[in-house]
Each structure stands twice: as structure tokens, then as C-alpha cells.
Amino acid sequence: MRDNLGFIDSLRETREPLVEIVLQPGTRTVVVQDPALIHQMLKALGPTLDKGRLYDKLGQLLGDSVVTATGRTHVRRRRQVQPAFAHTEISRYVDIMRAEVAATVDGWEPGQALDVREAMVGLSLDMLAKTVFAGSLDDAVFRRLRRDLSVVLNDVGVRIMLPDWAERLPLPFNRRFDRARAGVRATINTAVDELQASGHDTGDMLSMLLRAIDEETGEPLTGHQI
Q1: Which domains does the chain carry?
Q2: Which of 102, 136, 139, 225 could be cross-linked to 221 through a Cys-Cys bond (beta carbons 3.0 to 4.6 Å apart)?
Q3: Calpha distance 76→225 (Å, rounded)
């Protein structure tokens, strides 16, 4: 598909609340276009609705996190991490992100050609460094995490479209993605283990998330859940 936005925009011309499209043979994909139905999905059906193939694939990278969890597990985990997203914390993150945007834009030269996607991915990863891992990873480790995350973010869209059996083929694309995914998980798990062992509060989001307690089990988040 060469014009993704054009294709999505063309669906509106059908004026149908639900439009079925084919993204992968044997898999049904339904695009919900009616605002009332979207509201019902997100609010009334949210706790029980399956998030679908995209989040199944993301779960391979992100683990059993609040982003990928479904149903009541998602609701419970969302409450668990809520303190990290309190108004005061969000305000602090906004200030950090604003500074990162300003620094990035200041580095651009008039007339310079930019790959917008690459620039935005880079900016997002820099924001991630300053908000989530600011006090938990040294520069060398974060550069490695940034490199691995860049590979995953660039390739995850293709993986979503591939049938499961294709992911097991010994192709360079699969090997690169699998190495990067393993690197991301290893880096985060190591950071979590070291932070838990030290008991220090580094002041970043990772440190705050590790203080969150599951209301049912009384246990903190694990690296897999973060």
C-alpha cells in the first residue's frame, strides 16, 4: 500500500459505520468509523475488548505491560501505575519534552533536508531517555537501548502484517528484529534488577513505576510488566 493515509481517507467515502478490509489473507479487519461506536468500544467495552493482533505483536516486545494488557488486567495495572501519571508528574514530563523539542529544532539548519520519520523517532527516543530512564541508565547503555528500539520501531509494522510462520524463517530481517527485541528486554530487565537491588529512588519514571504495588497481589511491577 503506497498511500496509507489516502486509503484510510477513502474509507470515509463509504459512509458506513463499519468497513471490513483485507490486510492479511484469512484475517478479518474491521475499521470502526462511527464516533458513537468508537466511544462504546473505548468506554463500555474497554475492560473486556480484545486489543487485537497489533497489541499481541507489541506484547512480544513490551511484555505484559499496561499498554498491551487486556480486560481486567489492564484496568488493574492502569490503576497501579496511575501515580506515575499524576498531574504534577505530567507537568514535569511536559517541561522535559519541551526542552528536548527545542534542542532538536535548534540543531536543524535552514534548507536542511530531513527524514521526518527518522527525526521524530529520534526525538521520541530522546524524550524516553529523559523521562523514563534519566537516572537508571548510563549513556553507553542508553545508546544501545536507543539503537535497539529504533530497529524495533522501524520493523514492528512489518511484523504485524506477517503471518506467524514467517517470523520463524531464518531471514536477515527476522534475525535483526529478534536481536533488537532481545536487547531491549535485556536492558530493561537489568535496569529493573539493579534499581530494585539498590533501593535507590533515581527520580525518573522507571523508579516511580517500580514503587507501584499491585492492589490484588501486593507485589511490585516486574521488568516484564514494565
Answers
A1: 46-210 (1.10.630.10)
A2: 225
A3: 12
Question: What span, in angstroms and rounded, lies between the C-alpha atoms of 135 and 195?
Answer: 10
H-helix or E-strand spanning residue 45: none
> Can you read off the three cell numbers belonging to residue 225?
510488566
Where do we find the cell 536487547? 183
The three grid cell numbers given for residue 125, joined into one nine-digit string:
527516543
Residue 2 pLDDT level (bands cut at 50, 70, 90) = low
**pTM: predicted TM-score of the whole model, two decimal places:** 0.69
Q: What average pLDDT is seen over the chain?
A: 82
Centroid of chain to Cα 107: 26
Instruction: For residue 199, give every residue at least 6 positions away whose Cβ sits within 8 Å of its Cβ, in sequence order, or none.
Output: none
**What is the distance between the alpha carbons of residues 167 and 153, in angstroms, rounded to a whole number?**
16
First to last CA, the chain: 34
What sign does the dihedral 19-22-24-27 (CA atoms) show? positive
Q: Of 137, 150, 225, 153, whose CA–CA distance to 187 is shortest?
A: 137
Residue pair 95/80 in contact by the 8 Å Cβ criterion: no
More confident residue, 209 or 180: 180
Q: Is the pLDDT of residue 214 over 80?
A: no
**Contacting residues for 50 by C-beta, under 8 A, at least 6 apart:** 70
In the numeric block, the cell 505491560 is attached to 65
- For the cut 80, the answer to whether the pLDDT of residue 102 exceeds it is yes
